[in-house]
Amino acid sequence: MLDLLIRGGLIIDGSGNPGFYGAVAVEDERVRILRGDTAGIEARRVLDATNRVVCPGFIDMHAHSGLVILAEPQHEPKVRQGITTELIGIDGNSYAPFHSHDDFLKFVQINSGLDGNPRLPGRWSTVEQYLDMFTRRVAVNIAYIVGNSPLRIGAVGWDDRPATRDEMANQKALLRTSMEEGAWGMSTGLDYPPGSYADTAELTELSREAARLGGIYHTHVRYSLGDKFLDPFREALDIGLGSDIPVHITHFYHRTTSPGGASRMLGLVEDARDAGLDVTFDSYPYNLSSTRLTILLPQWTHDGGYTRLIDVLRDQKLRARLRSEMGPRASSWGDMWLTNFRKPANHRFEGRSILQVADLLDKDPIDVVCDLLVEEDLETCYVSAGGNLATLPKFVSHPLSMVGSDAVLIGDYPSPRTYGCFPVILAEFVREERFLALPDAIRKMTSFPAQRLGLPDRGLLRDGFKADVVVFDAKTVKAPATRTQPKQFPIGIEYVIVNGQIVVDSGKHTGMLAGRALRRGRAST
Description:
The chain is of the alpha/beta class and 525 residues long. It contains 18 helices and 22 strands.
């Protein structure tokens, strides 16, 4: 007897091919595709998918779930979108290896405006121990990529200086061990210290080590570099060429403040691909970005780590320098909305812009930022408007793009992409505006990211593949989340199956924690 039979639906298998009608059987966590009459086939549970699409589970190539999912394992904002696998450890900010628990705690605090600072169910120091925290304890699968920040902290420390030869050897050893324990490559976030203190040569040398083990280079580029338009991406491509590693540029999009057009950005990647570099990217379908508030601070403020950063923020004598060096990461302070306040007195600022808070407190915006970061111990996050809506479809629909939600899971007013990234593509970019055909969109969400990572048995509905499956209504799927009302679950995602277990049943979470850590180097995940 089968564990599960899904019949009557349009199977879009993730390959990009048009759909076909048939049944999806699940037995021992694996899929079989059945054609013809299935009336005589017995199963413990039968799902009627008539007038529905049946496809592989979605893979999120940029997830900020590395801590929050351990504290909130049902992971409803993501799994109810149809996401069954997430890539964590992105932006250079990952949580293993950390051989010093004190360094780990300081790093969590520094990055808490992005990944939160929840109560954790245990301790770890190695990648292997960290990945053990997820299996059968969370709702979705986790793929891990090691950030260069923990590598640098472990070998160099928190200071802004070049790594010595011995320190480079130590970083490479940490990276090699991390990948042998299951990491899929290395990530960087070159706006985020201390990983951002690594220069191009250091990153190329580390990437060469990752390439030897079959990993990828996943990068949030150095946006402050050179012309601040194409040069940041040129550095990423140069690292790929210099190390012979596949390059994945994350949250690739065109800003309203960019000095040139989107076609020049895409052309840069296309030309590199034509020249032989294995390069891809991910995008999200919103003009709203989100990250930790500390990103506004100059790099020198972090030189030395957490204690130095807090001292700088408290030092009134340094405020004049900060005012001269800081500005909004949007068109204005009025387009940056704050969230994630723990102190009751600051809850009134949830969802308000920095400009609104400055007016309420009769303060300069720089003083607002610095004072709130001290009061909230760096945990404040913001959402900003900055993506160019007119050019966004070029990125989402591009043949080299896949989907990365970049969803921040903290605060009362997260970006709406936290709840709606994948469904809004199905609803707006496919059904309503027809920027993409449905099979192409599903390929970007399933087999393409699986191929990019190297997942051997996920991303397609094929005989023997793992049973990560989504059943949705293509005619009604939509994402109602907005900036001012972001915590709204999508409509039309009816069933989500993770490793053969039903996690979302008729649009409701079952409480099942069927996810597992997917480790590189295994014949089966």
